[in-house]
Amino acid sequence: MASFNFDTLAQIYDATRGYPEEVACQIAQKLVRLAGKPEQKKWLEVGIGTGRVAIPLAEQGLYCTGIDISTNMLDRLEQKLKQRGWQAVAYPWGTLEDERVASIPRVVRYEHPELVAALRVALADMTAIPFESGSFDVLLAIHVFHLVDGWQQAVRECLRVLRPGGVFLRAWDESVPSDISKIAETFWRMVEERGGKKSLQALEQKPQVDAFLEELGWHSEEDSSFTWVQATTPRQELESYLQRQWSSLRRIPDEIFQSVIGPLEEWAYSYYGEGIDTVRKCEERFVVSRSVWKS
Question: What CATH number belongs to 6-173+200-227+286-293?
Answer without folding.
Answer: 3.40.50.150
